Amino acid sequence: MKSLVLATVAIAVIAAAPAFAQATKASRADSKFIEQVAKDGQAEVDLAQLAQQKTQSPEVRALARRLAEDHSKSNQQLMQIAQQAGVQPPTGPDKSASKKRAKLEKLDGQAFDQAFVKEVVQDHEKDIKYFRKEENSLHDPQLKSFAQQTLPALQDHLQMAQQAQQAMSGSGSSSRSGSSGSRMTR
Asked: For residues 80 and 75, what is the distance between their CA atoms, to the nearest angstrom?
């Protein structure tokens, strides 16, 4: 009887191994998403604060203020999710973001505004693509909801940046890909 119980337990452990491995893999995917989004969000706030200090353009100032507010709120929400999931995200921007900031710090006036807005457009195009790719791969329901709620705000930021870019260049050739016009509400 004892060997039958041990055999049953051994079979149950072996049968559960693939499910356990899948759960661990999902956890790693969620952790990677949290870490990437936290790093990018911190960089967005940092650059937006720099822009608020350096720009003379009311349109760029409004964009920077909106980015700082929305990404700060988003970062706080993500930190709560990370804490509940037991994930320790990075505490600051990565080397790439630090290099971007250093490059922007050296610019002034219209050169700064154009470089900042160009950076915002590029970053948000990349972020939107990343969120779309990852939102269906996320396993944590709160994290999945976060991604779904954040995506429209990223699209709105992209549209604002493209409009600022268009206003600075004085042309109507700026594209507006994937914007829903939604605002981040939290």
From this structure: 9
pTM for this entry: 0.77
Cα 157 to Cα 14, 89, 143, 168: the distances in Å are 49, 24, 21, 16
In a domain, 131, yes or no: yes
d(CA 3, CA 105): 72
User: What CATH number does residue 137 fall under?
Assistant: 1.20.1260.10
Mean pLDDT over the full length of the chain: 82
Expressed as residue numbers, the domain containing 133 is: 28-169
State the Rg of the chain over Cα.
21
Question: Among residues of the chain, what percentage have pLDDT more than 70?
Answer: 77
Distances in whole angstroms, Cα of residue 171 to Cα of each of 29, 57, 84, 162? 42, 17, 47, 11
In a domain, residue 181? The reply is: no
Q: Does the pLDDT of residue 25 top 50, yes or no?
A: no
Task: Measure the CA–CA gap between 90 and 119, rounded to whole angstroms.
Answer: 22
* pLDDT tens column, 82-117: 998 889 888 877 899 999 999 999 999 999 999 999
